């Protein structure tokens, strides 16, 4: 409590380097998710036989392409957390965005040369390097974001993902109509390389590494985070992490979130094209509405949680549970409603899809903050493990949709997909409510994990 009071008194006025880093990380999330989802829109036009250049891919092949990103994505999640703690987040996030950008630039050429097999290889490679995004982002957040500003600044950073999806869906339709589906990949690749150049010059792994930050702001951040002294090098307590039930409750919540979210993210353009009968331009504009809603709602959700904690209306743990419940049970109800919408009622279908994704903003201040609350010193490791399991779900969800949906134009088959997603949302959040907590774990700063202390003791002996 003393540290918090002291850091509030030390807080510099106006904007600082931490806000510049927040903007850069926000843009990294925006671009990473743009490149993650661009295939969802591009594949609609890539398989359109009315185009001069198109591919005759079955729906099962398309499902494999849509899920192939996550084949690579899950592999490096846990190593990504370890590497982020060892080398800092800057190097890994730079590698991730730059490699994804280069692959996006080459995708049109490689697709025509190697067919769907080469597209799967490219998407798998993009997934491998994007595996660094969340572990490195969580590590950077733990180094840059003061406790008093956590709800707001973390929300700004992670909400970049939803804005990236929304802008991609909007832009893809216009780009494809004007210059063909190839322009979708060229645009993403060029913007990603521009970000990489900027970040190499002004990005930093923490205030201690920044050449631009003032001593005043650096002291404020380090005091707020309890890092006034030289940071200790702690050995990762893997056995204690793996036996921590609140951690697994957050992982389960993460898995439920990914099932519903990635089902909608990968399949929504196809649903709108085949069931609602929208052309590509309409599809992009209306598919973007749910993610714009999620982006817009993430800010009041972040501010709301900061206010609730500051006013002590609820404990931190219960505040996280409230947010997660809004984020998972809200979409569960909306998807059930979507399942019973009469055929042909396009407006109501879009409204329900918008609600189902929009209120999902609660996840940012739910399980995601629990992963940071439990053990800030090991937040990258916790996120790496959680993302590993959650993104196995991201692989499975599109493939299950491919099995359920034999006729893409049959609303009854889509209804089964929506019911399944609702059930997953409900039961995973129930587990989160029962077993999650935001209480700092004793092993976060366990002296037994202090490598430097052990080395000193050996030298003294």
Largest sheet report = none
C-alpha Rg (nearest Å)? 22 Å
The count of strands amounts to 0
Encode the helix/strand succession as letters: HHHHHHHHHHHHHHHHHH
What's the mean pLDDT score? 84
Low-pLDDT segments? 1-5, 450-461
- Structural class of the secondary structure composition? mainly alpha
Task: Characterize the structure shown.
The protein is mostly helical and 461 residues long. Helices cover 77% and strands 0% of the residues. It is built from 18 helices and no strands. The longest helix has 42 residues.
Key features?
disordered C terminus, 461 residues, globular, mainly alpha, 18 helices
Task: Chart the SSEs and their pairings.
Blueprint: H1 2-10, H2 17-46, H3 59-73, H4 77-87, H5 89-130, H6 133-144, H7 150-179, H8 182-202, H9 215-224, H10 238-242, H11 245-274, H12 280-311, H13 316-339, H14 346-358, H15 367-374, H16 379-404, H17 411-435, H18 451-460
Helix pairs in contact: 1-9, 2-3, 2-5, 2-7, 2-8, 2-11, 3-5, 3-16, 4-5, 4-6, 4-16, 5-6, 5-8, 6-16, 7-12, 11-12, 11-13, 11-15, 11-16, 11-17, 12-13, 12-14, 13-14, 13-17
């Amino acid at each position: 409590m003393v540290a918090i009071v002291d850091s509030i008194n030390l807080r510099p006025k106006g904007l600082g380097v931490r806000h510049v880093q927040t903007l850069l990380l926000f843009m990294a999330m925006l671009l990473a998710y743009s490149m993650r989802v661009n295939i969802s829109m591009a594949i609609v036009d890539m398989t359109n036989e009315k185009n001069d250049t198109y591919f005759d891919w079955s729906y099962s092949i398309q499902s494999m392409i849509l899920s192939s990103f996550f084949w690579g994505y899950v592999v490096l999640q846990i190593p990504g957390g370890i590497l982020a703690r060892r080398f800092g987040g800057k190097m890994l996030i730079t590698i991730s965005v730059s490699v994804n950008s280069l692959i996006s630039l080459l995708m049109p050429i490689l697709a025509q040369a190697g067919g769907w097999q080469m597209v799967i290889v490219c998407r798998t490679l993009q997934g491998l390097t994007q595996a660094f995004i969340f572990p490195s982002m969580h590590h950077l957040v733990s180094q840059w974001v003061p406790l008093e500003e956590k709800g707001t600044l973390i929300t700004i950073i992670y909400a970049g993902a939803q804005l990236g999806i929304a802008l991609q869906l909007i832009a893809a339709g216009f780009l494809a109509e004007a210059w063909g589906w190839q322009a979708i990949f060229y645009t993403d690749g060029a913007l990603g390389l521009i970000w990489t150049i900027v970040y190499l010059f002004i990005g930093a792994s923490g205030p201690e590494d920044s050449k631009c930050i003032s001593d005043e702001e650096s002291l404020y951040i380090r005091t707020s985070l309890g890092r006034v002294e030289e940071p200790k090098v702690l050995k990762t307590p893997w056995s204690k992490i793996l036996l921590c039930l609140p951690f697994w409750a957050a992982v389960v919540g993460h898995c439920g979130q990914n099932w519903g979210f990635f089902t909608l993210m990968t399949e929504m353009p196809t649903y709108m094209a085949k069931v609602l009968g929208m052309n590509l331009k309409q599809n992009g504009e209306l598919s973007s509405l749910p993610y714009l809603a999620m982006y817009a709602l993430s800010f009041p959700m972040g501010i709301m949680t900061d206010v609730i904690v500051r006013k002590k209306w609820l404990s931190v743990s219960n505040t996280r549970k409230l947010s997660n419940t809004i984020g998972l049970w809200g979409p569960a109800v909306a998807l059930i409603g979507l399942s019973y919408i009469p055929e042909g009622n396009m407006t109501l279908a879009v409204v329900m899809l918008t609600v189902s994704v929009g209120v999902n903003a609660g996840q940012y201040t739910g399980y995601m903050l629990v992963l940071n609350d439990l053990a800030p010193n090991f937040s990258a490791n916790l996120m790496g493990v959680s993302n590993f399991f959650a993104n196995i779900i991201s692989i499975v969800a599109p493939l299950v949709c491919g099995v359920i949906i034999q006729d893409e134009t049959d609303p009854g088959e889509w209804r089964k997909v929506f019911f399944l997603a609702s059930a997953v949302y409900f039961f995973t959040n129930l587990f989160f409510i029962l077993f999650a907590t935001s209480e700092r774990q004793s092993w976060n700063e366990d002296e037994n994990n202090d490598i430097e202390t052990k080395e000193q003791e050996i030298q003294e002996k």
